[in-house]
Amino acid sequence: MSGGPEPGQAPRDKQEPPRPGSVRPTSRRLLIAIAVLGVAIGVTMVKAIESGGGVAPAVSWLTLVAWAFLAALLFAAARNTHQRIQVRRERMEPSRAVFLLMIGKASAFVGALCTGVYAGFALSFLQAMGSSGPRNRVIMAGAAAVISVLVVTAGLLLERACRIPEDPDETP
Hints:
Number of strands: 0
Shape: elongated
Number of helices: 4
Order of helices and strands: HHHH
Distance between the termini: 22 Å
């Protein structure tokens, strides 16, 4: 009778540590915390600018187009990477895979922060929705927040596409 697992098997009650050189998936909780921090930054920024007698910045169409273009590029990269690594099981140069993984992670983090900042802008202008100027600012900032969520999603998909597939020949 043995008190531990059979030789060659990991204990069942303990989580296996990550392999050397591996990167943990981006935490959804961390992304939410970053977005909440972004909301606080956005609201504080608008209040600070307006209390100083300035005019708070408005989100332009160019910003929306640029964010949408970035999201489209990230979705395309995620799909291409998924097809290469997961579906066709092609080998990818390690430096390229790491580059794509880091682009995905960075996009998720920056997208979460911008989602919060744009949502904070929208919330700040929400109080004066009666006139057309603030209404347009709320709509534009809200649209930018939604597109930023798409950037986060595309970044997470790119990160996920970079995972090394399990070897079907390997048996535990």
